[in-house]
Amino acid sequence: MEVLRYRPEEEAEPTWESFEVPVHPEWMVLDGLNHIKDQLDGTLSYRWACRMGVCGSCGMMVNGRPVLTCATYLESLLPGPLRIEPLSGFPVIRDLVGDITDFMGKLSSVKPWIVRDTEKPVEDGEYLQTPEELAEYKQYSMCINCMLCYAACPVYQIEPEFIGPAAIALAQRYNMDSRDEGAQERMDVLAQHEGIWGCTLVGECSEVCPKKVDPAGAIQRYKVSASVDFFKSVLMPWGER
Ligand code: FES
Hints:
Elements: E1 2-5, E2 15-18, H1 29-40, E3 59-62, E4 65-68, E5 83-85, E6 92-94, E7 97-98, H2 101-109, H3 131-137, H4 148-152, H5 154-158, H6 165-175, H7 183-190, H8 204-208, H9 215-235
Parallel strand pairs: 1-5
Antiparallel strand pairs: 1-2, 3-4, 3-5, 6-7
Helix pairs in contact: 2-6, 6-9
This protein binds FE2/S2 (inorganic) cluster.
The site of FE2/S2 (inorganic) cluster (FES) has 12 residues, from loops.
C-alpha cells in the first residue's frame, strides 16, 4: 500500500510512503491500514469508527476514487500497490485526516432536522405518517455524511463555495417529510448561486454514494421546485407559493 503522509505544520508537501501489507480474503482496505498502524508505523493517522459502513468516517481516495475503506475488499484491488490519499477537496490536518469544518457548516445551513411553524403539545401525541409518506423521503435519509460525494464532485473541487451534494440531498430529505414545514427556509439557502444552481449535473456524486442516496437526483428535483417557486412569485406576487 502506498499511503500519502503529511504533517502540514512540519512538512512543505505530502510524500508517499510504501508498506507491505498481507492480503486475507476477508480484509478490507481499512484492515490494511490498521495492520500498518498496529504493526509497522503507529504514527499513521486516519479516521474510522464503526467498521460496518454506517458512521461514514472512513472515506478516503483509493486508487483515485472516493470509497468507504471499511467496505472495500483489498482483494478487489489486486494486484497492488494501492494508493491511499485523503478525500479530495478537504484541507489535510494530518496524513489521511481531512478538515470537515466546511462541510459541517454547509450541512447545518440547510437545517437538516424537522422544522415546524408551531409545535403541537406533547399530550396531543406523535406526528403520524403513512408508509407511503415515509417512502417519499426514505432514500435520502440513508445518507451517512461520508462526504464521498464531495470528493467526487468536480464543481466542489474548483468552487468550494458550492453547498454540495449531501447537504442538498439532506435538505430534500426533510422537505419531503410530511411532518416538516421548513421548505421555504431551506429554499432561501439553496436558491443561491452556490446552492443548487452550482451543480452542472455531472452525476459522479450518485455514482460513488455507498448508500444509493442519489444526490444528483435530489438536486434536479430541487431545481424544478425552485423554478416553480420563482415563476409563482412572478405570476402571483400576492402569495399562494
Ligand atoms: Fe464507519 Fe467505515 S468505519 S463507515
